Amino acid sequence: MGVPAQQGVATFGNLPTGDRANTGAVGSFSGVGPGLPVSVMGPANALAYASQVTTLTTSAGSIAATLASATGLANGANIYSPAGLVPPGSTISGLAGTNFNVALPTLTLPGTLLPNGQIIGLPSVQWLSGATVFGPGIPSAGLTVISTAAANPQAGFPLSAPAGAQIFPQNGGSVQLSAGVTPVASRDGAPQSFQFKLAAAGIPAGADTAAIFTGAGVTFNATVQLERSFDGGNTWIVCNIGGTGALAQYTGATVGPVSLTFAEPEQGVSYRWNCIGWTSGTINHRISTTGAAATVLPLNQLS
In degrees rounded to 5, what are phi and psi of residue 254? Predict the structure, then answer.
């Protein structure tokens, strides 16, 4: 049991699937008004940012891509494709008008390396074609993924698996590397981590009409401020930043995305974002914590 929050204040919030915080709230502003208050104790994060949604078009086996609109975008902007055309963590490179190259990330995935150059038990093989792979048992120059295979839950454990290896054939699948290897033993046969430096061969063709872009140049036409309450939400006070007493107020066109970390030492304090000036667009906001407010027991409940 955690520390109870005040009435009307979120104790777990409305965090999206995949968010690992245990207290927080995610929302958006499209006009002036307050966001959802969250009870915080200990370290916390606060975000306020805009995003650009436009159509992303890719070609199979190529990092060359196009945008329906490049307004506010620049090299280094992050790309999220809900349709899965590019992997998470990809960014814009070589932007010229609405044409650009996808700068691909390196993914770290758990798996089990076999002597024949297979890595099995991977959680996913999406985007891995042509990737250069590094990790235990693989030469320092890396090896290339020459084929991928989705898992077959009915296939059972591979006969060539090392003794004691923990193999989960129901997972995402396996890859075949460009050469055989000498696997390095892991403790209790547990999966090991491998780095996949992704390549153009892993990019599919398609058009994602809901691709989302974020970056320093994607600003919001509004002013938001971070506030806190010490009396259960009756009174809200604007936070200060730095040692000069500057107010925690941010105008998107001036400062761009806001991403900060703070700490609250006192139990029962609530935080919220408040949009105090709005012109246009949507401002995404988030406050979250995985701290004492969600894990500490009141003294009268210890036994």
Answer: -95, -45
Q: In sequence order, what E strands does 78-205 have?
A: 78-80, 91-96, 99-103, 106-113, 118-122, 132-134, 143-150, 173-177, 192-197
Each residue's pLDDT tens digit, 150-197: 876 444 434 344 444 333 344 579 999 999 999 998 887 789 999 999
C-alpha to C-alpha distance for 303 and 295, rounded to whole angstroms? 16
How far apart are alpha carbons 34 and 1 in whole angstroms?
A: 29
pLDDT tens sequence across 56-98: 999 999 999 999 999 889 999 999 999 999 999 999 999 999 9
Between β-strands 258-280 and 38-49, what pairing exists: parallel, antiparallel or unpaired?
A: antiparallel
Range of the domain at 114: 106-202
Between 18-32, 69-83, 100-114, 250-264, the lowest mean confidence (pLDDT) is in: 18-32
**Same domain, yes or no: 170 and 189:** yes
Question: Is residue 184 exposed (0-12), middle (13-18) or buried (19+ Cβ within 10 Å)?
Answer: exposed
Q: How many CB atoms lie within 10 A of CB 193?
A: 12
Same domain, 114 and 146: yes
